[in-house]
Write a structure and sequence with these properties.
4 helices, alpha+beta, 12 strands, Jelly Rolls, 6-stranded antiparallel sheet, 2 domains
Length: 261
């Protein structure tokens, strides 16, 4: 989970203060992570002691899915992707010996760390269009980024601002799901709008999705995914994901035009 923890504003404070800037934050984060791993190890050993025939392997050869997740400022959705900032499978771990697995002390010591800090997935939900998440590698088939709206919503409207090419975006398979297990591809252009902003630094393509205008049967969902169907030497570059209020939607749509694949 990649996020910026903040205090809730109180009457004595006009604005919230980033928790990561408070005194002894690093110590608190480290001790909490170590404590959590110790609890896990103690629980596994306790369960094993109940039945002598049950053992917990210290190595796992199956490839379970890992996702990087980032909650929005308002906690109204979660942005996530399968592209990890580091190759977790190459990081050794022994739960009975290594209690620093989930702490900052265990992060790789190479240029990838600086790249992750500069282009973290957190940049997609920080409300700043000048900061973007850049995937740290080329795109392979089935790579994706997605949005979890936390519960099934109907007629949801959201914006997606990307700095990667329109060609890459148009070649992504858009799918929706109610439970994250069964997915349905949405191949229509209904309810999708776009506009392009050109600056000296980048071309920003913004897409507006209004599921109220989606084809019948696609107006309600909890998850929406954008998945690569072929390999590409391009990289995902997502600058903003934002739910749009319906109060001013007519004026907002005036700045967009209907998508034409």
């Amino acid at each position: 989970m990649n996020t910026d923890i903040r205090y809730q504003p109180s009457e004595s404070r006009k604005r919230s203060v980033s928790f990561s800037l408070t005194p002894r934050f690093s110590h608190f984060q480290y001790t909490s992570a170590v404590f959590a791993i110790r609890i896990l190890e103690r629980s596994l050993r306790f369960d094993r002691s109940k039945d002598n025939d049950v053992t917990f392997s210290r190595q796992q050869n199956r490839n379970f899915p890992y996702y990087v997740k980032c909650p929005s400022f308002n906690d109204d959705f979660i942005f996530y992707t399968n592209i990890l900032p580091f190759e977790m499978k190459n990081t050794s771990f022994n739960i009975s010996q290594n209690f620093e697995r989930a702490t900052r002390r265990n992060l790789p010591r190479d240029p990838n760390v600086k790249y992750f800090l500069a282009h973290s997935t957190w940049k997609t939900v920080d409300g700043d269009l000048s900061t973007c998440w850049y995937a740290n590698r080329d795109i392979y088939p089935n790579d994706f980024f997605a949005i979890d709206f936390l519960y099934i919503k109907t007629n949801v409207i959201f914006k997606l601002a990307v700095a990667h090419s329109q060609r890459l975006q148009k070649n992504l398979d858009i799918s929706i799901s109610f439970d994250g297990l069964l997915w349905f591809s949405y191949r229509s252009q209904n309810g999708i709008y776009t506009k392009t902003n050109r600056t000296l630094e980048q071309h920003l393509h913004t897409y507006l999705f209004d599921s109220g205008e989606f084809s019948s049967g696609f107006k309600s969902f909890r998850y929406i995914s954008f998945k690569a169907i072929e390999q590409s030497d391009r990289r995902f570059q997502i600058c903003e994901v934002q739910i749009v209020s319906t109060n001013n939607i007519t004026n907002i749509k005036r700045d967009f035009h209907r998508l034409n694949m």
